[in-house]
Amino acid sequence: MNPKVDFYFNNAKKWQNELNKLRLIILDCSLSEELKWGVPCYTFQQKNIVIIHAFKEYCAILFVKGALLKDAKRILIQQTENVQAGRQIRFTHVGEIVEIEPMLKTYIYEAIEVEKAGLKVDFKKNTELLFPEEFQQKLDESPALKTAFNTLTPGRQRAYNLYFSSPKQSKTRILRVEKCLQQILNGKGLND
To answer: pLDDT over 70 for what percent of the chain?
Structure first.
């Protein structure tokens, strides 16, 4: 156990038993525990293998290269259609974790073998972004905004596009676009 990671488990308002059980299972698989992106990340020879994280409706472990796992039991979940590599296993009760503990370890060991073999996820290139009309209108109205947006890295452009596109209601998309205009003009990414 890495003391730098303890705060994550100690401060968990929900899923504390589940998170601690997942931690013990993963550490039993001889992985190193680190804190990355504000969450516990478990590594093998400095390569990310699995992450623990908590959400409102569930807690989960995320296999960083989960798309490369065989998933014989069909328990891995792709978070969203935009996630290409990672796959989750979700839990809402510690009993669910205990019930599949041997299977979890099998998946973890398989993920370690994927890393040992040097396998890589074949990422699909999506070069053309389709912007929501609320953002496209702002780009058309402001050459400075269009120039600033085009100078952002492709990853930052995609992050904004996903953020702007995800709401179902136009008014929410408009609010998000308005909120980010100055940040884009300043050459900053969504999470900078």
So the answer is: 97
